[in-house]
Model the fold of this input.
Amino acid sequence: MKKHKTITLGHGSGAGLTRELIENVFNKNFKLPTLDDAYEIENRMVVTTDSYVVSPIFFPGGDIGKLAVTGTINDLSMKGAVPVYLLVAYIIEEGFKIDDLIKITESIQKTASICNVRIVAGDTKVVQRGKGDGIYINTTGIGILPEGVNIVKNKIKKNDKIIINGSIGDHGVAIVNAREDLGLSPPPESDCAPLNELVQLMLSNGDIHFMRDPTRGGVATILNEVQKEINHGIVIYEELLPIKNEINSVCELLGLDPLYIANEGKVVAFAGGNCKKLISSMKNHIYGKNSTIIGEVTDEVNGVYLKTSTGSLRPVLLLESDPLPRIC
Amino acid sequence: MKKHKTITLGHGSGAGLTRELIENVFNKNFKLPTLDDAYEIENRMVVTTDSYVVSPIFFPGGDIGKLAVTGTINDLSMKGAVPVYLLVAYIIEEGFKIDDLIKITESIQKTASICNVRIVAGDTKVVQRGKGDGIYINTTGIGILPEGVNIVKNKIKKNDKIIINGSIGDHGVAIVNAREDLGLSPPPESDCAPLNELVQLMLSNGDIHFMRDPTRGGVATILNEVQKEINHGIVIYEELLPIKNEINSVCELLGLDPLYIANEGKVVAFAGGNCKKLISSMKNHIYGKNSTIIGEVTDEVNGVYLKTSTGSLRPVLLLESDPLPRIC
Done:
């Protein structure tokens, strides 16, 4: 905490400043068993917790309720766990419309039902007008790890393929368009989706070594976090990156790099072998239609690099902060 | 939701309006297995979640970090569970002092250590200045139910004694004094304390049928909630209620009734037999020194009643709201 005496938006960005806060404040005290989002406690039970402060609370492709369920389900899924239970806690600002609370609650229940997840406990707090921003939601998820599943960073090997299940940057751009009234038509939609089913399919059809969902900080941030903990470099290929034209246009307009933009329905997987069976099985799933290899683990570089279409190598660095606050 | 179109502070009070919101909005969707704070999922594992929005965040007897640990540990304890794991999620307002964040984090770790509870996962979000109030903390607790322990409302029987482990109203009055700068000297201290040890002692030394911690809404609210679900009445005795003189004075000054004021280190237990061994064991514990019977389950009344020192019966009603917002 060498530079900051107070919390900045960057400390919540999921990028470098968040990492610094976790290392220097939280982990110094808590000595967390892992800095992954989810943790196996006992009896193959995996737990995770997340607060959702997205603004606006309703956006094309989802709302804070759907996001609070899918985000937590996805954190469990990245460990290979099957989500089973969910706990939901609301912090509501005085004056919030009860009709909106009903809509959000219905959205939570609908998403949980689709995923076969049972809501078992909750909590409601209300804060005065001006001490919140409509509604914040915390969800805690509990899942069960199927026998034989063990997803850990140190299983990543040289020559592992890096795979993503579809387009990059959709969620962040959908939020920024809705928030800043950019007026894009049709408005870009968030990719907000539960990945529990797709992940189990991947585990059955490929040699998955590690997975992460590229939320806050995007693909670039999670690749950097992973690379720091393995003894290899990572190269991704510009021409293989699935980025929609409209996402590229918005990013160019706003000076953003899609690699750093949050996704809410994407998994980045590190897998062994040629991955043909894996990718073709993923393409059969609704949330994997555009699955593709985007890179590989290699000793030819030290760090994370993007190989551009002209063949040059550009470093993909860990940023201190994310340009878009309150994206999830 | 007949009367309100928007959320009021009362909806977060833990009293009647909160109950209405739970019944008409949350439970209509979630169909929660229980409206108790904690729930047994499987393998004798009990889970609970709570957000803490107390203001001010530092107060005599504790701080939001200590409270976020003890409050959740106490919810697990009320089911008879031994708390084992904790997940911690922060929502921090931009501009919050990092020194205060460190103090709070140390307080969380210290309290968890004392209780032998391990913090296994966390989350940090930051919201813009004016969209929060310093810091809000959510904790989720996971505990293990010892073999043979089964604490459920329907075990409550006629003639059960109602027991509390000490003075009533301390937390709420400590908060209101700190918040409103009433300037009482010495300032009243919160009773904020973890009850996990005391509860296990009680389970070993008495025939405990049911327990609840009288937090938001105080002793009166939880007695009403319990009474609604059993086929008996409840009488408590004014002269047996342990209320400190200074708490009574502040309550008189502010027109508050200590029975409705939040406690954060108290358990109200329903127990069979004469409870002599139970009470004497409780008195040997640091958090049970002033343990006493305050009432009983009876068919002589229908509802919750206070027998005053003059022998008359005064109804103790479920209020719509709590007079003190953001007490926990």
